[in-house]
């Protein structure tokens, strides 16, 4: 019986990982041009989009995507695996406090934390590449002298942990509400 539960949990984790990986890859490819424009606007180095396209090749819209494309699918997969593991842990250890949403919220927080660990270093590299205008990755020596790949990790955790808990709980609440209405 225990073996069957472990096999089922492994299958669920594998499915979560594959689905998360695929959705992360597609999302990265689709959102990179917008992300580049936002990064340049925030840095105050923005040119108009049409000006940037005419001055640079169209492929410049995907500049800095390499590190993110390498990590985003894995990061997304870790989010869903972390969510499933966190939710299961909360349910097994009766951390619900009488609420069906609390395990979902805690699972979302775990998923957000797992995602941040992979995402933060990749985002640091991506932003550096977008702002520099070069396609090369900053050297390890430069990154280490400026705080290493963990620079920005605290901000990424703040951005991802609680909001992912709220996102998963909101999604679950809305889904259950709509299913009851049918």
UniProtKB/TrEMBL annotation:
One of its GO terms (molecular function) is transmembrane transporter activity. This is Mitochondrial carrier protein. One of its GO terms (cellular component) is mitochondrial membrane. Gene3D superfamilies: Mitochondrial carrier domain. Keywords: Membrane, Mitochondrion, Repeat, Transmembrane, Transmembrane helix, Transport. It is a multi-pass membrane protein. Belongs to the mitochondrial carrier (TC 2.A.29) family. Solcar repeats lie at residues 11-89, 99-177. The keyword Methyltransferase does not apply. InterPro entries: MCP_dom_sf, MCP_transmembrane, Mitochondrial_Carrier. It comes from the Eukaryota. It is found in: Mitochondrion membrane.
